């Protein structure tokens, strides 16, 4: 296991969202998966977990609550998707919830204007930006985080190995990794494709 950042607490971001802003009651499967993720994040090893579930099963809410744990421990988080359409969908789905918690979240894609891109880069480096959502544009060398603690990748099989590895170098130690997919993947195939990882399934 690669050494990772221990997220030792669940704080006000997570607890306030859970108590006051959760848009629906979590299913037992979502609660189980969150418990598994929290255990991973609290260890001294880098999390490397695959989250599998059908479209509409609630993977995104699990991803957000995982990012809130990162924020509670003083880290930033990112969510990378393979297409601009999917990135925008994630952004639109999370922005309102994040605004309620006074969390700064931005989206970065190939079509982001140069002026806005510069603002995002600056806010990311000085720590004002908490969560960055986007496409492979997140992998650009100019995208530098102050303290990236959690990287979430949607449909990772759409990215190349070299592309994915660039995210690991966005901090002094590799961030925790949560991979999301709606594609059913047999465990033996997942191990061969993704390596030494743990698997969670939302039924």
Count the DSSP helices: 7
Task: Tell me what portion of residues adopts beta-strand conformation.
Answer: 15-25%
* Class by SSE composition: alpha/beta
How is the biggest beta sheet arranged? 7 strands, parallel
Q: Spans of 5+ residues with little confidence (pLDDT < 50)?
A: none
Q: Overall mean pLDDT score? A: 87
Helix-residue proportion? 40-55%
Q: How many DSSP E strands?
A: 7
Give the strand order, joined by hyphens, for the main sheet.
3-4-2-5-6-1-7
What is the general shape?
globular
Separation of the first and last Cα atoms = 28 Å
Radius of gyration: 16 Å
The topology string of helices and strands comes to: HHEHEHEHEEHEHE
Could you walk me through the main structural features you see in this protein, from its secondary elements to its overall organization?
The protein has 203 residues and is an alpha/beta fold. It has a seven-stranded parallel sheet, with helices on both faces. Helix 5 links the parallel strand 3 and strand 4. Helix 2 packs parallel to helix 3. It starts with 11 loop residues before the first helix and ends with a strand.
């Amino acid at each position: 296991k690669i050494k990772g950042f221990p997220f030792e607490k669940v704080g006000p971001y997570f607890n306030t969202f859970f108590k006051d802003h959760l848009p629906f009651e979590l299913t037992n499967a979502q609660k189980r998966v969150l418990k598994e993720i929290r255990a991973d994040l609290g260890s001294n090893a880098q999390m490397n977990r695959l989250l599998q579930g059908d479209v509409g099963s609630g993977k995104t809410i699990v991803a957000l609550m995982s990012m809130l744990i990162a924020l509670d421990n003083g880290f930033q988080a990112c969510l990378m998707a393979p297409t601009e359409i999917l990135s925008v969908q994630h952004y639109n789905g999370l922005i309102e919830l994040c605004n309620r918690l006074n969390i700064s979240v931005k989206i970065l894609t190939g079509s982001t204007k140069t002026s806005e891109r510069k603002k995002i880069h600056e806010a990311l480096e000085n720590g004002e930006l908490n969560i960055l959502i986007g496409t492979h544009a997140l992998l650009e060398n100019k995208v530098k985080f102050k303290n990236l603690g959690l990287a979430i990748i949607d449909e990772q099989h759409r990215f190349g190995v070299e592309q994915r590895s660039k995210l690991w170098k966005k901090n002094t130690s590799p961030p925790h990794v949560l991979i999301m997919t709606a594609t059913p993947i047999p465990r033996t195939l997942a191990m061969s494709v993704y390596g030494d990882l743990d698997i969670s399934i939302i039924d």
